Amino acid sequence: MKQLLFIGLFALLAIGCKSTSATTTKLDRSSQSGIKGNWVITSVNYPGKDYITVNSFGLADSQCFVNSNWKFVSNNNKGNMELTKSGCPAFSSPITWFVNKDGQFVLKVLSAGEKAKRVRDGYVLNVANQSETSFQLIDRIDVGGKMTDVVYQFQKTN
């Protein structure tokens, strides 16, 4: 009898402590609709950027993302991103993305022909200062044991 009570209590506790991840929350359709279209990153800022190098999205130095082109399609959560800055690696890739109800931007960079469900790694950034012509994505990174914001400033191109 004690065993049955213990199992029941454990099951109740496990259900009650169910965690929520950025990928399992509901979507913020109005934020997504505002982000659709073609964008360019006009700046990437963080404290100490003159002394510290940040590798963004596991692809390149964060400053290589300045003038990069991004296309967001909100009705199917797909798009494309392209690094174009000289002196930086040339890179172009399809992406999948969405904005959840917590204001988090969830991004996956895909290889050509690859399905998003097969990509295990992605990025969760916060959306800030969203308007019709601009918005920011903020990534939190650990620099020497201190959490630091990396701010990607997006400007609409058309």
| Architecture (CATH level 2) name | Beta Barrel
The name CATH uses for the topology is Lipocalin
* Spatial order of strands in the largest sheet: 1-4-5-6-7-8-9-10
Query: What is the radius of gyration?
Result: 19 Å
**Amino- and carboxy-terminal Cα gap:** 68 Å
Gross morphology is globular
DSSP E strands, number: 10
Uncertain runs with pLDDT below 50, 5 residues or more? 2-22, 112-120
Mean pLDDT value: 79
Report the major sheet.
8 strands, antiparallel, barrel
Strand content: 35-45%
Determine the fraction of residues in helical runs and give it as a percent range.
10-25%
How would you portray this structure in words?
The protein has 158 residues and is mainly beta. The chain has a single domain (22-156), classed as Lipocalin (Beta Barrel), CATH 2.40.128.280. It has two helices and ten strands, in the order H-H-E-E-E-E-E-E-E-E-E-E. The chain has helices at residues 2-16, 29-35, and strands spanning 37-45, 55-56, 60-61, 69-73, 78-83, 91-99, 104-109, 123-128, 134-143, 146-156. An eight-stranded antiparallel β-barrel has the order 1-4-5-6-7-8-9-10. Strands 2-3 form a two-stranded antiparallel sheet. A hairpin with a 3-residue loop joins strand 2 and strand 3 (60-61). The longest helix is centred in the N-terminal third of the chain and has 15 residues, at 2-16. The radius of gyration is 19 Å and the shape is globular. The termini are far apart. The model is unreliable at 2-22 and 112-120 (pLDDT under 50). Residues 35-114 form the Lipocalin-like domain. Residues 1-22 form the signal peptide. This is Lipocalin family protein.
